[in-house]
């Protein structure tokens, strides 16, 4: 069972890099909570997991592939088309607005959902579409593992740096300990994603992906609870 769970995580496409827009958005005034934004960042993959389980979308594993993520995501017309992602962003933004009653919160959440497609196109081979049918798009950085790894680490590293600088912990906390714990857990999960055992069961893949993303979102909610954007300080010139 443990092997199945780990191998399911092995193929979760670009993983922690998707959380970079969530961290940037959470640093803004009137932003939703960090946990909700983590869900937004992976909402397209949540949908992909559901569509895999229902047979609406399909994938296959590529054993002994040289690709960093050895999967063929050959049928994702709904969850990973640009049109589908735009629709998903709009759907996600509606309950955010109803809950927060802030247009800014809904727009930030929707933008984070939409960012998923634009990050994916950098690393995926030609398996993304504009509206569910060819042409298929993707720059395929997965075929160049060193470049893909550097991109992912740069995205999430810069985003965490910005988040720590742009927000302050609750008054009862004097450190960024929770944020550092979140970063450490994400890095550990990413190492499994890159170097863990390869998967072979798309059903296990879908369940593990949904579970990991949900636990990660709960951890992000804990890490970001009570944090507030730092006040803007206007520079004085003499």
What is the CA–CA distance across the termini?
A: 66 Å
Summarize the helix and strand pattern as letters. Answer: HHHHEEHHEEHEHHE
- Radius of gyration (CA) equals 18 Å
User: Total number of helical segments?
Assistant: 9
- Supply the helix-strand structural class: mainly alpha
Number of strands: 6
Which strands sit side by side, in order, in the main sheet? 1-2
Mean pLDDT: 90
Which range best describes the helical content: under 10%, 10-25%, 25-40%, 40-55%, 55-70% or over 70%? 55-70%
**Net shape:** globular
Which consecutive residue ranges, at least 5 long each, have pLDDT under 50?
Answer: 1-8
Largest sheet: 2 strands, antiparallel
As an assembly, this protein is single chain
β-strand amount = 5-15%
Describe the structure.
The chain is 59% helix and 7% strand. By secondary structure, the chain is mainly alpha-helical. The strands form 3 sheets. A two-stranded antiparallel sheet has the order 1-2. Strands 3-4 form a two-stranded antiparallel ribbon. A two-stranded antiparallel sheet has the order 5-6. A hairpin with a 6-residue loop joins strand 3 (128-129) and strand 4. Helix 1 (2-10) crosses helix 9, helix 3 (34-41) packs parallel to helix 6 and helix 3 packs antiparallel against helix 9. The model is unreliable at 1-8 (pLDDT under 50).
